[in-house]
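Service request form, structural biology core

Requester: graduate student, group of Dr. S.
Request type: structure prediction, single chain
Budget code: on file
Notes: please return the result as structure tokens.

Sequence provided:
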Amino acid sequence: MSAIRILNGVYRNQPVKGATFELVKGFQTGAKGGYVTVKSNGYFGPEFDVVRVRVDSIRDLEYTNSMTQNNTVHFEKPVVTAETEDEAMNRIRERFDILHEMSKACVSGDIRAMIVSGPPGVGKSFGVEQEIEKATMFDKLAGKRLRAEVVKGSATPIGLYQTLYKYSDTNCVVVFDDCDSILLDDVSLNLLKGALDSGKKRKISWLSESSTLRREGIPDSFEFKGSVIFITNLKFDGMKSQKLRDHLDALQSRCHYLDLTLDTMRDKILRIKQIAKDGVLFADYDFEECVQDDIIDFMNTNQTRLREMSLRMALKIADLRKSFPGNWKRMAETTCMKSA
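Core staff response, request fulfilled:
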């Protein structure tokens, strides 16, 4: 069993210095730079087994086969200061602020492609859709063709090609929201790679015979000059399938990749608390602050039983609190929780 000593690394924004771990895979480079793959052995939390620790170069590593007397590797636990609740909320807020600014840059054409990754129900789409709404407001008032669109759900390869052609002009933006099926189809994936390419010219082609394209007057190749935002629930760094990971790495290398870092139940709860604190989440309910706190405390207490931890779930429970103020908890237990 080989071991590796990480002299200077980072995992999930936490420093890893002078720590020895069981080695899974040696130094490699990816879209985000160098990294080494090691066994967590419980340090990074019970939910993490094999992890990638980022390092600047191979000089930050010491490979060793040394064992303790009982033939096991000695794992040194690095000293890491736990992230406080305020620090975590600031981290999450900063990520969503970046998402908002990057969305504006895509709409203006300054950024041509972005992938946004995060769990469902945390508000990934909200800020993006706000910017799309602003971008199309004058188009709607003038009765013009909209220069931006949000596409939700599955998309066939030819449907993807048609959409990219429709929004291929320089001032156009197309948002793919919850269209993860695109990533699982080789033809769709190659079309998406073409749209996300960082080259000066992005040429997209459809080389198969298609009566649909011919009927609609769509050419078999065109230059894509618009911007693309791809919003997904998949965490690219956590893919177990090597084939899919290779494809996702290729996408990451072509455009900006924003991971919202909402990886734990605690992060999701803090995101809900943050939106409530900003006065946005329960704005339509006219709740007093103590009532809002009751809802969030209820979700926190029952986090393992709720069907999901999300902003949508918070609003479902808020509906019950408003409709059944004396019996809302029992109603939530019946309609929002998994069976025991």
